[in-house]
Hints:
The chain has helices at 14-20, 25-33, 83-89, 111-120, 134-140, 195-219, 231-242, and strands at 46-47, 55-66, 95-99, 124-127, 144-146, 158-163, 167-169, 172-174, 179-183, 186-190. By secondary structure, the protein is of the alpha/beta class. It has 2 domains: 14-190, 3-Layer(bba) Sandwich (Glucose Oxidase, domain 1); 197-242, no CATH class. Strands 1, 2, 3, 4, 5, 6, 9 and 10 form an 8-stranded mixed β-sheet that branches. Strands 7-8 form a two-stranded antiparallel ribbon. β4, α5 and β5 (144-146) form a beta-alpha-beta unit.
Amino acid sequence: MTPNDPTITMDLDPKVIETLAGVTTATLTTVLLKKGLRNLWMRGSRPIRPGQPRLVGRAFTLRFVPMREDLATPESWGAPISTRAAIEAMPPGCIVVADAMGVQDAGIFGDILCARMARRGMAALVTDGVVRDLHGVLGTKLPVWCSGYAAPASVAGLTFVGWQQPIACGGVAVFPGDVVVTDDDGAVLIPAAMLDYVLEVAPEQERLEGWIMQEVMDKGAALPGLYPPNEENKKRYEAFKAAGRKA
């Protein structure tokens, strides 16, 4: 797989985005758990500011490896394989997922790079590493999920080696074109091959849990037999749906 692999599809149907924007990352982990996928929540990727919107997009991957002094230099920023070149290859609407190996003392992106991504229409940046120039990054309005911030530049601890390759981010295997959903609970990966299943099952799971929450909050219902629902409560829920009501 190369940065220009024509088999990687990055477009995402607006209806898919609309559907997944109504499903929490918590619900997505439950739906995928039922298919045996337990490791899809990216550790260390937290919203840089509260209240960032839930976002959905294809993963555009960036890969860093440990810093090597002959490669990780300020001069490398102008090389053909660089974060600068990668940004110009990103399609609008993608979610940039960067494998920074969890390094905490080298910011992979600062305000200028984030400003360029925002200007080019990237949906978000997700990384298990940190950013720098915090005040400026916040000013770009680019939604960011990361593990913190640090003053040193990326080359102080990392070497950038490529984009649109399989990576590991927060302990999760991410392939170009996988779907990423972000919200206040972090970032969750939907494998591209599982997307149709998730679109079929996740909205119903979200609706069911909304009904259960309503039963608990409004009616004081006890959890046994309700969460998960027994046969009696399944019938009540089906009646609720048939009546066209919303939780």
